Structure of Rho-GAP domain-containing protein:
Amino acid sequence: LMVFDKKGKKPVPDKERQIEALQLLFLLLPSANRNLLKLLLDLLYQTAKHQDRNKMTAYNLALMFAPHILWPRNLMAADLQGNITKLNNGTAFLIKHSQKLFRAPAYIRELARLQFAGSKPSVIR
């Protein structure tokens, strides 16, 4: 989920690969959980779209909602404190990219289309 920068020395996040990984993970969620998460992220995304009026950027919303959305079940507050920045950044990423996350990756959609059309895929990734 990381690639090297243009100089080839420092690893940087590959957003497209991260989105693809989340798309695949979200397909594994039970439908009720996936639907609830989609509705919540849609609401937060729509709120962040009006940040010029409400001052609620995706990161500000993540600060408020991250502990409630992504809190690991058996983790104490003191244990989470060291990772709160990662948790907030991850939640902000989910909010910013929520409109893409609940679709299957393009290559899976294409394979499904070909399967239902009776064709064989030319390239499998």
